[in-house]
Amino acid sequence: xxxxxxxxxxxxxxxxxxxxALLEDINRDxxxxxxxxxxxxxxxxxxxxxxxxxxxxxxxxxxxxxxLVCQRCTGPVDITGTRVAAGQGIVGLVVATGQAVMVEDxxxxxxxxxxxDERSGFVTRSLLCVPLQTRGERLGALExxxxxxxxxxxxxxxxxxxxxxxxxxxxxxxxxxxxxxxxEQERMRKEIELARDIQLSLLPAQxxxxxxxxxxxxxxxxxxxxxxxxRRADGMIHFCIADVAGKGMDxxxxxxxxxxxxxxxxxxxxxxxxxLEQINTELYETESRGxxxxxxxxxxxxxxxxxxxxxxxxxxxxxRLGRGHFECLPVQAPPLGVLPTLGVPNQRLSLTRGPCYLxxxxxxxxxxxxxxxxxxxxxxxxxxxxxxRPLRERLPAIITALRGEQREFHDDxxxxxxxxxxxxxxLLSLEFPAEARRLKTVRRELSRVLLAQQxxxxxxxxxxxxxNEACMNIMQHAYGEVRDGPISLDLRRVGDRLxxxxxxxxxxxxxxxxxxxxxxxxxxxxLGTHFIQSVVDEWQYGHLADGRGNTLRxxxxxxxxxxxxxxxxxxxxxQGRLLGGRTGR
Length: 585
What we know:
The protein is α+β, with helices and mostly antiparallel strands and about 575 residues long.
């Protein structure tokens, strides 16, 4: 007995040396060839010649619909591309069960499907079909048809040889697929790296001359968040921050498209609100696969700190008024791409009151090892911690703090910080109980500081009375029966104007109830607001970020003349939304 015969017996193959030599050649071919289709073709050609069959074919699974497709064939009829439904015919049965089928009269087999013969004109008599499977996965089947007449029907030795060939082919197919998957993964990795590089190139360079700073960290290699800021020709700074619902490549592509629209349309848009309306129209009219975009965009005057912005469904901007004091600026419109129109208004604020921070939900959703999210309160605490740093260092310091707490980022994370370039000079800071008797001290201290600013005595007196009226409104409408709630007063000089900020910690007030009533209504009281409007150049109501507390900012220019009569005052509705501009006096 030769070595090859002994080896074949150990492998359980009842084949002679020529069959074993055939298997060795086939295995060597699979191991050395880089072209699987050609190797499969050579394999079935060799098996066909060795076993003297009329036809041979290899069927493989179509991963799309689960059917079996003839990948390679040899014989008088070319059936390449022929499809067999999953579980149908003898081929489908073999793949479904993982068991070989060997029949002398194929037409007598219950699983035989005659439609292939009917279409091709070929007549199937005897048949041997074995599964291609490896590691429990069935990839397809090897089918041999019509054993030569003198050789008789298919034998057990034929079955062993076909099974060995099928095992070698299955292993080669699996290896090729794994290599292809690895190559595809590497290609995708490189494409994602390229996409990330493109995204990074779209983000603005940090400019120390601008009072704006931004930061973006993707949860994956590409991000659905973005921010932008650019100095315009008129000196104004256009800025935006956005969050595309979802993650991965789809969100990144929509992010790139939205940013491109922003940069293009912002050159001609009248104001932030009209800009968002145009972008919403573009996104709504085109298919976005159910994705939408939340976005804040606006214009900042870096010299005055005046800011006008519009918010489409994004997190409220946070205006820091002092340690532990933040004003939450409300959202007034749905996200982009959801409704045909937004109805978004322009909102105004002054950064002389403090820096403004915008963020995406990846920040507040960062979770510690216990699974607890940072939340808005945690973010406000971090903003207090980093406030003493230069503006450009604050956002990286927040990320460092989050990583120091071992927080995990499950969503894209983006932050934007805005601050005025003009210096703010603190002049007076007071905190006192909401008691009318305390206002005498407030009036005295305020008069002393205002006169030191070389303000005209009459104007000084008028401003002091305006602040007194504002404090009385806080006591009456905010605190009500609570007579000792705290009120804080902050007076600052910002360039050529004075800013007075009053903060209370009462429940949020509907500012409409303390607005001025018609002057023709001669009922007692209620005219203090008219007096305040006549004294100051601008005034703004707002709410603190923690849901308890109200803010009132009064602005008086030191050298400016009287503003035009009939101009709108900066007010807010019950949601704290800014409605106007200036007021006459």
